Amino acid sequence: MTQAATLTIDGLGMRFGGLVAVEGISFQVKSGEITSIIGPNGAGKTTLFNCITGFYRPTAGRVLLEAPDRRVEVTRLRRHAVARRAGIARTFQNIRLFKGMSVLENLAVAWHDVLAGSLGHQLAGMFNTPGHVRREAEVIDACMGWLDRFGLAARADDLAGSLPYGLQRKLEIARAMCLRPRFICLDEPAAGLNSDESIELAAELMRLRQETGVGVLLIEHDMGVVMQASDNIVVMEHGRHIASGRPDEIRDNPAVISAYLGEEHSRGGAAISRLRKAGTSPDLLRIEGLRVGYGAGDVLHGVDLTVREGQIVALLGANGAGKSTLLNALFASPLPHGGRVSFAGRQITGLPPHEGAGLGIAHVPEGRHIMPDMTVFENLQLGAILAQPESFDRDLDAVYALFPRLHERATQRAGTMSGGEQQMLAIGRALMQRPRLLLLDEPSLGLAPLITDQIFQAISRINAETGMAIIVVEQSVQHALATADHAYVLRGGRIALSGPAEQLAHSAELRNAYLTGHAA
Amino acid sequence: MSLTETENMTSAPPCPTLSTAALRSAAMAAALVGVLALPLAGVQLIDVGGRPGLELRPLWVVLPMAAAFVLRFALIRARLFDRPGLAPTLPRNPLAGRIPAGALLALAAVLAILFPLSPLGGRYEIDLASTFLTYVMLGWGLNIVVGMAGLLDLGYVAFYAAGAYTFAILNRDFGLGFWQALPLCVMVATFLGVVLGFPVLRLRGDYLAIVTLGFGEIIRLFLVNAARVTGGPNGITGIARPTFFGYEVAARAPDGGGTLADLTGLAFAPTHRVIWIYYIALLFAAVVGVVTWRLRNMAIGRSWEALREDELAVAAMGINPTTAKLQAFAIGAGVGGLAGCFFAGRQGFISPESFVFMESAVLLAIVVLGGLGSHLGVVLAAAFLVFMPEIARSFAEYRMLFFGLAMVGVMVLRPGGLISHRRPSILAPQGARARKTGGAAR
Fold first, then answer.
1. How far is the C-alpha of B305 from the C-alpha of B286, rounded, in Å?
2. Is A149 on the interface with B (CB under 8 A)?
């Protein structure tokens, strides 16, 4: 069906202001092959996809499509032209279906060029000419073929938004295939699928490229799918290409293992604080049997977790395991529909966010959510709204001592600072609330290694100096384990592994849980 | 999962505190209404021996407060106790499957054609029906922009005005008749839609709404101020009426031409013109209805609806979102121009006062009330919005109040609009449905 084609990514780079998201990426993929792009969160994988599919214009390098009938410089096309001119289709990390339209209509939109590609076709459609009726029937036929293949035919007339999560993922792939692409870029198609569905997806992808000859580019955190389906793997870290090769080569590549699990860090300070609180302090936060879902399916299936006073707890796990959901559920968004949460002996299940802050839980969400148009000082003031006014100066000094950079930039607009500085501000703002428990969601997301080190040093210091309990969700496993006292590993919405951080750091199970996806 | 459903889940076990919470909230609402009602309605300026004085009207404060209290309380209680399974679900389409849609449509067409000739068709009724059909036309046009493409346009009346003024000016300065000017009116409005659309369609949501709102006002102010061309606040009078295949529908033809009376031998009656106008409105509405219905079921319509759902995904489908938006905006504007031309021909007189923001608001209300994107919904909502104020006319000054209450009521009962069910533009072939039942059997 598809002619042999090659997609060459040549020295691709993408900067957002000062932040280098992707730098110097070069590799080649051929139609009929499955190439996976893996790497920790914030490695620049989705940015790379956005450059390949025309959603971003890269700041360096180019993407070239070569087929027998054409040679297209993809990076010069406008985003809507990429699908037609270069034959590159894509799906999105957070499913983007036309939810209010039927399943069949979703696919039909991909045939727009056939049904309404020219004024003649549009007029034919207006008068419903026999030619148009025939074309429409052919399109419906082709769509039904794809729906059949993905087991969706029976739901062709249902609203796309009414499908369960797993089927929505499949529908998005079917819709991309309806563009008759040479290459299809799938951004985390297995996210949110359970392990059976993931295995099925991997098999389907392999069948797809065999039967249609389409080239597949796959971003995926589920190592089970990656190892099973890939012909080639490209590993990225901090925007750079650190390794590539066949799955078995990648599995044993030390650079890859360290990218996923981080370099072995050992910090004296953390070890001392660990000795200081050898698990004897009273429970501060206790989560029992927490069940949470976003509608299409449960994300957390009964999670138990305890944080003691003065403890740092790391929450680890692949993307989509439910880590952020767990933190968010403490603040009732989404509302848990099972289980109990108690904080300092008080029931707080389903408490609205602003009341949670009043209790002494501060949340630094993923992506920071600072107020970009306000100054650094104003942002910190906001954090102190609930705190005692007389302690404001003292708290401010403490934050400035922790992050001298914030002091230097006190009058600067927060949005103009670098990613690392914004993260410092987000943590500083949370500290101004004088919480008893601090929730940090991926503090190192998108940060350079050096800044990540600084942030984690600060976390250790806060804990050591104030005895504040901290839950930290982190992709950089080694950082998290070096800092934390206790760790939990979430997989598929369940606790797969838990124990003292030091033990976990050396456990083979942890490595398996991350790199094979089928551990424990 | 909707917000209300989530709320229901937490409050599933009804505990006594909920009643207190509801009472408290209701009391707050009542207090708020009281604060507002006291200066607005609670005091009246009266004449005390030639000097102005104030009279307190306690009933005007207490009654709204009581109403707010009861409504708020009822609303909270209703929300707390309707759990997903128990919520009363209105039938999706009560007539679905019982009477074929084609037959219903034919019946409606026959009734609409016979209406002016029937005893029901008094002059006032026919005139009102023409107004209704104008709003249906405009509603369908705006429905493309707002309902299908999801572009919130608060200045739609500008295109209506453009159509009306184009005809009026062409008639006054160049002597063009209604039917000659009609295509030009549509073209001018469409062109205006493209010209406006090009810069503003990068904006989304509220920003687009504000810009289009401003555009509507600019057009109106232009009409008021460019007095040499538009006649200013006085408008343009003596616009030619639509002819009946070249024959004037009037007592006398202005320039010695034939009249309908000459043609048919019937003595001229003023109702003839009203009936003729009604038939033109019916024809236009039918054409707009068929065209928009076809558009809805075509690939273009699907691309518009996809645009409403997710613009990024539309681009990933190889469709240029800007082009799709422009198409929607231009076609919507064209329909506005058609209706505007008809309006000018019907009234014979236009002024900027006919094209105020209120018109845009009513049209938007028609689309939203009918259910975004629904064809039948526009008809029902237009009927509601045109006939309701007429029926309530005897209540004189209170009719806007009733009108508003009725709108609130509809939106509370049917938040998705009158017709919230959307039929897909294409359906799976019979074979797939056979598989569906087969699958169920397995």
1. 23
2. no
What residues make up the domain containing B402? 105-413
pTM score of the predicted model: 0.70
Find, among A418, A519, A515, A520, the residue nearest to A223 by Cα.
Answer: A515
- B318 contacts A112? CB cut-off 8 A: yes
Say which of B9, B435, B436 has its CB closest to residue A335: B9
A107-138 pLDDT, tens digit per residue, is 999 999 889 888 888 889 889 899 999 999 99
Query: How far apart (Å, rounded) are the C-alpha atoms in residues A31 and A7?
Result: 8
Task: Report yes or no for ipTM above 0.90.
Answer: no
DSSP B24: H
| Nearest CA-CA distance, residue A301 and chain B, Å | 17
Domain extents in chain A: 1-87+181-261, 98-179, 268-360+436-515, 369-434
Residue type, B76: I
Which residue is it, tokens 């590549």?
A: A253
Collect all residues of chain B within an 8 Å Cβ-Cβ radius of residue A90. Answer: 316
- Whether residues A97 and B309 touch (CB distance < 8 A) is answered with yes
By the CB < 8 Å criterion, does A247 face chain B?
no
How many domains are contained in chain B? 2
A1-87+181-261 and A268-360+436-515: identical CATH topology? yes
pLDDT in tens, A447-470: 766 778 888 888 888 888 888 899
According to the CATH classification, is domain A1-87+181-261 in 3.40.50.300? Answer: yes
Q: Is A122 within 8 Å of chain B by CB?
A: yes
Q: Most B CBs within 10 Å: which of A92, A109, A115, as the mutation test of the B interface? A: A109
Considering the segment(s) A268-360+436-515 as one domain, its CATH architecture is: 3-Layer(aba) Sandwich (3.40)
The CB density around residue B174, as the number of other CB atoms within 10 Å, is 10
